[in-house]
């Protein structure tokens, strides 16, 4: 399994992108701009969620979406668009208000009570990296983004993990 180092949320990507872009005016180009802005983020999130839900080790953790007391798939996607925009150095910060006008919650609150085990988190990151690659994000840029996400592990995994799987035995 691919392993990535730990990075500070948000900051690393922005710092990594503010140099050596060949812009004589000195203005920096974020990954958000480089890969096509909001339309690309929308596609990345759609593809990421589809990929994660196709993984029998991950999908069962999303089974509660749409049920009373839980979020909906549309809300999660909209919050992910906000978060991806921020992680890619675009015009957003997370947590904040998403493109549906709802406030997204912090990572600890969002994942409390889901019982997510560490290895499931690691697989989530591996799946996500594969989707980014399939959608044309370069390996170098994935290696910039991934540590930012890996850095959220402590906020996402549970101290009381529950192993769920819908994989064929
Ligand atoms: C770096 C990794 C991750 C990121 C960036 C992330 C991001 C998010 C975001 C932005 C939300 C929406 C928050 C809101 O509604 O305000 C969310 C919700 C959720 N996440 Fe994650 N997540 C990560 C890892 C995981 C993993 C590993 C799982 C399970 C395998 C998971 C399962 C869920 C579920 C089920 C919800 C919906 C909770 C609910 O509203 O009922 N997430 N996540």
Keywords:
169 residues, mainly alpha, Globin-like, 48% helix, binds protoporphyrin IX containing FE
Task: Write up this protein.
Helix 1 runs antiparallel to helix 7, helix 3 crosses helix 4 (73-87) and helix 3 (37-53) crosses helix 6. The radius of gyration is 16 Å and the shape is globular. It has helices at residues 11-17, 31-34, 37-53, 73-87, 107-111, 118-134, 139-150, 153-156. Mean pLDDT is 89; it is low at 1-24. It has eight helices and no strands. The chain has one domain: Globin-like, CATH 1.10.490. By secondary structure, it is an all-alpha fold. 48% of the residues lie in helices and 0% in strands. Residues 58, 61-62, 64-65, 70-71, 75-76, 79-80, 83, 104-105, 110-111, 114, 116, 120-121, 124, 149, 152, 156 line the site of protoporphyrin IX containing FE.
What would a concise description of this structure say?
The chain has 169 residues and is mainly alpha-helical.
Number of strands: 0
What is the tally of helical segments? Answer: 8
* Structural class label: mainly alpha
As residue ranges, the low-confidence spans are 1-24
The CATH superfamily is identified as Globins
Average pLDDT, all residues = 89
Measured distance between first and last alpha carbons: 21 Å
CATH fold label: Globin-like
Largest sheet: none
- Kindly report the oligomeric state of this protein: single chain
Bound molecule kinds, no repeats:
protoporphyrin IX containing FE
Question: Which helices and strands, and how do they pair?
Answer:
Elements: H1 11-17, H2 31-34, H3 37-53, H4 73-87, H5 107-111, H6 118-134, H7 139-150, H8 153-156
Helix pairs in contact: 1-7, 3-4, 3-6, 6-7
Bound molecules: protoporphyrin IX containing FE.
């Amino acid at each position: 399994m691919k392993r990535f180092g730990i990075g500070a949320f948000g900051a690393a990507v922005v710092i990594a992108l503010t140099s050596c872009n060949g812009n004589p005016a000195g203005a920096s180009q974020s990954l958000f701009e480089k890969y096509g802005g909001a339309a690309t983020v929308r596609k990345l999130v759609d593809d990421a969620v589809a990929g994660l839900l196709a993984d029998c080790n991950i999908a069962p953790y999303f089974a509660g979406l749409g049920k009373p007391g839980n979020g909906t798939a549309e809300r999660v996607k909209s919050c992910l668009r906000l978060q991806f925009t921020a992680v890619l150095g675009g015009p957003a910060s997370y947590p904040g208000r998403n493109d549906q006008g709802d406030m997204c919650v912090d990572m600890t609150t969002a994942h409390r009570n889901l019982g997510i085990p560490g290895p499931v988190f690691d697989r989530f990151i591996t799946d996500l990296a594969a989707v980014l690659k399939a959608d044309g994000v370069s390996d170098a840029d994935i290696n910039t983004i991934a540590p930012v996400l890996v850095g959220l592990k402590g906020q996402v995994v549970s101290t009381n993990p529950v192993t769920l799987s819908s994989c064929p035995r």
